[in-house]
Amino acid sequence: MIKLMDVEKFYETGAGKTWVLRRINLEIREGEFITIMGPSGAGKSTLLGILGMLDGAWKGEYHLYEHAVHKLDNRRRVELHKRYIGFVFQQYHLLDHLTVAENLDLPLSYRDMKKAERDGIVADSLDRFQIVGKKDLYPNQLSGGQQQLVAVARAVIGNPKLILADEPTGSLHSSQGKMIMDLLKHLNDTGTTIIQVTHNDAWAAYGNRIVQLADGWIVETAATAGKA
């Protein structure tokens, strides 16, 4: 499904190049649940941003299905993102001028769906995440944990083939965190590919493979026992 070959990223500074990622070679099969771990500054979120086509300033090759992403212009990358990917951002990235329900409807609005069908999916999602009472509120009226729940709901609402999650439980208390991880595990069991960044060993165990980064390099890839 995904193949990265010699992917690298750096920033130009007064002292020269500051490398963020170095020679990343990684293959991810459809249906895997991958966890990316490593210390702060290791390049985890940067790698996730490249996989999500949110960052175009990198070198190397990135193949997603039959698409050579590294050869595509920005417009085509945006189309691929909308077609295949749900992204859970560490900082939520909800649209402040839209209500909770409108934020959830946004990914569905890109698809060829009647409004009544979209409204039904949004209603189901609000119920699933236990945020029905928040549907008419705006993001700045929500707590950080509530915004994170909405962000996760928005990422999964369109049943994307690939979910990229950057610390998806970072603002949640333990019971909410477990709910989100159980949901991701369920989606993975039904065929969705998941790639998450986390510092939490318990959440990492939900996946089947851990990729360890340090100073921009992949230093270890190991299978996990998985979470039943």
Question: Features of this protein?
Answer:
single chain, 228 residues, alpha/beta, 7 helices, 29% strand, globular
Can you give a write-up of this model?
- The strands form two sheets. The chain has a six-stranded mixed β-sheet with strand order 6-7-8-3-9-10, with helices on both faces. Strands 2-1-4-5 form a four-stranded antiparallel β-sheet, with helices on one face.
- A hairpin with a 2-residue loop joins strand 4 (59-64) and strand 5 (67-68).
- The chain has a single domain (2-223), classed as P-loop containing nucleotide triphosphate hydrolases (Rossmann fold), CATH 3.40.50.
- It has helices at 44-51, 74-84, 100-109, 115-128, 144-156, 174-189, 201-204, and strands at 2-13, 16-28, 33-37, 59-64, 67-68, 85-88, 162-166, 193-197, 209-214, 217-223.
- It contains seven helices and ten strands.
- The chain is globular.
- The chain is α/β, with parallel strands linked by helices.
- The chain starts with a strand and ends in a 5-residue tail after the last strand.
- The model has no long low-confidence stretch (mean pLDDT 93).
Query: Strand arrangement, largest sheet?
Result: 6-7-8-3-9-10
Residue-averaged pLDDT, rounded?
Answer: 93
Uncertain regions: pLDDT < 50 for 5+ in a row? none
Q: If classified by CATH, what would the architecture be?
A: 3-Layer(aba) Sandwich
CATH class: Alpha Beta
How many independent structural domains? 1
Kindly name the structural category.
Answer: alpha/beta
CATH superfamily: P-loop containing nucleotide triphosphate hydrolases
CATH topology grouping: Rossmann fold
Radius of gyration: 18 Å
Q: Which overall shape is indicated by the principal axes computed on the Cα atoms?
A: globular
End-to-end C-alpha gap:
24 Å
